[in-house]
User: Fold this.
Amino acid sequence: MTTINLLQAVNLTLKQEMARDQRIIVFGEDVGYEGGVFRATVDLQKEFGKDRCMDSPLSESSIVGVGIGMAINGMLPVVEMQFMGFSYPAFNQIISHVARMRNRSRGRFSVPMVIRMPYGGGIRALEHHSESTEAIYSHIPGLKVVIPSTPYDAKGLLAAAIRDEDPVIFLEPKRIYRAFKQEVPDEEYIIPIGKANVVREGKDITLISWGAMMREALKAADLAKDKGISVEVIDLRTISPIDRDTIIESVKKTGRVVIVHEAAKTLGVGAELISIINEKAFLYLEAPPLRVTGFDTPFPLPQGEHHYLPSPERIFNKIMETVNYLT
Amino acid sequence: MLFKNYNPLDKKMFQIMDENSNIKNEEYMPDLNKEELLTMYENMIQTREADLKALMYQRQGRMLTYAPNIGQEAAQVGSAFALEKKDWMVPSFRELGAWLTRGADLKMIYLYWYGNEFGSHIPEDLKILPVSVPIASHLNHAVGISWASTLQGKDEVSIAYFGDGATSQGDFHEAMNWAGAFNTPTVFLCQNNQFAISVPRGSQTSSETIAQKAVAYGMPGIQVDGNDILAMYVATKTAIERARRGEGPTLIEAYTYRIGAHTTSDDPTRYRTDDEVEVWKKKDPIDRMKKYLIDKGYLNEEENDRLVEKCGKIAEEAFKYVETNGKTKLDDIFKYHYKEITPQLLEQMEEYKEFLNERGEL
Assistant:
């Protein structure tokens, strides 16, 4: 066991995986010599050499496009988009090729690559540095989208992503990169992609979230507990494919659901979750499923971001609205 | 020496055989025997015949939209002939001649244009990527493939094909830049056929040549007469050998002309004159090679007729196969997208099958 933060968990996992499999290669802007602007890849170049961890030209489309070629020719690229907001120049590569190559070639060529992106707000960043557009990537068939919310999950999920034979978009909630530490096993372990985590069991309402918002969701669940409300808290962990069974099972038990995400509201992942619940558990519902989300605006600059990010109080109010529906 | 002698900034076009089939540049004449020359010629004829049949089938409503290659056979066959089996080819979508030269089955290629993804299922023994419809993004794949070759100590080179329009895309510049910076064994082969659908080369870029763009990325560039199969072969072979020696990437501009339409959905009479097309028809790469082979005594008219007939039959047979076997099976829509089908996709497939079943259509 070692006590580390989420960022250190990413770094440790990359080291262990690179030592395990020689085919793994890590690259992106500043990831080599400097070890990444957040230091997620620190020491990898020192340990594995410049051929295994290197600085790329400043060209997102190439980082992904070159990664595709390397994956096709026998390697396992784990590439970094410096910020999720900088992944858009690589959008064509991700959607047109990463997501489709296996299908296009009927399985002859697959692209087993991981695209890591620090995402989300709350770090007082510049414009374009706080994007939370996981819904966009989740809408694309062929990609898997994974978001850890703890150091433990980051290690198990990243190892799973690297070993997955399909391409994985791995979104790292940078707000909690260094926010807290947790005991994490030294040895390798896998948390399966496509499975949600019931973080806390409860019987009155289901609260679903992921990434940095899990911390706010748990605080809100504590506020509700003080009012005698038992909240079941689910960490989605994988945004695509969504673990429908865990969600449905929980909603059938509680009859109420609130979804929390920091992404914009319209057509966000929350909308998909509500559709799934309506399709599969409509008759179990005691109240309409509700959402606490960011707004349908760009993420505000730091002077306004505290308004945008869902707070425990906003989540708590929505929990109460749901619990008190028609009573 | 070739790339030094034809520095793109000097604006000299590399040619070995002139438009009257005379060898004008003996110094660079490749060491190809009769059999090899005839194989190259046969690949051009097969490409032309396959094109003509495809256009006919498309007009009969039996084939999807099709992108003809007529006029560009030398650029494709000549360059692909310089590759070895171990090398990778990363095509765009108008490279029929290169596919066939590398040993791809016409049945597979027709299957693609017939609308079945199995046309992109490249057999294990061929190192060719599927057709890439987005423009220029595949150039980065070629760079990645060849960089992976270097890192893994594999003696492979990759060649990427693209058109003049692709040079306007960011991905062209990113791929060229990366290849130059990393010295990857990549050959960039631009088929400058003068038009990106309706937009002429002159509106695409104000560079005097495409070849000179190589200078900015720190690699050799060369403009080649794309209708001269011998020059295309020599330029590509030189670039491949250079890459194999670890000396890095090269940009080749094949200066040619698309005689046909961009695709069967396009009407080129709207944006170019008959006179211009006639001028280029006189430079037909097949006519040029044919006359050369006849002059050499390697071919006569009767043998040529037999070859054309044989290639036409192969195309007919290939299409017959496709019409008999080309229907997409329902499961195939779902089962290749992920390594293992997701619960969501499985549910969608089963729900749809039930729908068909109830209608008696499964």
